[in-house]
Amino acid sequence: MQTRILFFVGIIASAEVLATRAVSEELIYSPWTKLCLSDVCFVAKDARTASDCTQRFGAALTERTGETKKTLRVTVPSSTDHARGVRIAIDQDQPIERPVGGCYANLCGAEIEGGAELIARLKHGNKVVFDAVGTNGPMHFELPLSNFASAYDGPAQAPALFEAQPEKLQEELMAQSEAERKTQCAAN
């Protein structure tokens, strides 16, 4: 009986490794990008499929001017088992379990909060790692932190445009961004 269980565990582990490899080979990662709207700034990165540029997962650090609290929100596919939540870690840190909430379109989010120590870990870390369980089994996600520090410390992207005519400009910038992503995906 124990041999049979170990056999199935081995098959499942192998399938997970192959699935993770297949997904990672097909992904295009955006650079960490900073955007500020009024008194709130976001530094975000996502991973999209190379074939159709569909967003698969991502992360965004949010901070409000004058507040010490920072929020790191990771996004996972909406097929994530909400009862099990998401485990989030930076590098080899002990994972923090958080509930899934705030679903939209094809993604759901989970958040961790912190302060200056969270920023320091993101600036000096190698990757954000998060795990969840979906309808097809375990899911593992990694986002490199290679240019997080320069994005965080650098200037925001086009903040004045959003403040001038928020709805219209946001739609235009989103359309432009999507067109750029599709061009980038087609080139790869």
Protein model, in words:
The strands form two sheets. Strands 1, 2, 3, 4, 5, 8 and 9 form a seven-stranded antiparallel sheet that branches. Helices cover about 35% and strands about 40% of the residues. The longest helix has 24 residues, at about 1-25. It has a single domain, classed as Immunoglobulin-like (Sandwich), CATH 2.60.40.1880. The protein is globular. Residues about 1-25 and about 160-165 have low confidence and may be disordered. It is built from five helices and eleven strands. It has helices at about 1-25, 115-125, 150-155, 160-165, 165-185, and strands at about 25-30, 35, 40-50, 55-65, 70-75, 85-90, 95-100, 100-105, 105-115, 125-135, 135-145. A hairpin with a 2-residue loop joins strand 10 and strand 11 (about 135-145). The chain has about 190 residues and is of the alpha+beta class.
Main sheet attributes: strand count, strand direction, barrel closure: 7 strands, antiparallel
Corresponding CATH superfamily: Invasion associated locus B (IalB) protein
Shape: globular
Q: Tell me the number of structural domains.
A: 1
Low confidence ranges: 1-24, 161-166
The helix content, as a percent range, equals: 25-40%
- Could you tell me the CATH topology label: Immunoglobulin-like
H and E order: HEEEEEEEEEHEEHHH
Q: Round the Cα radius of gyration to an integer and report it.
A: 18 Å
Instruction: Give the end-to-end Cα distance, rounded to a whole number of Å.
Output: 48 Å
- Output mean pLDDT: 79
Strand content: 35-45%
Q: Count of helices?
A: 5
CATH architecture: Sandwich
> What is the structural class?
alpha+beta
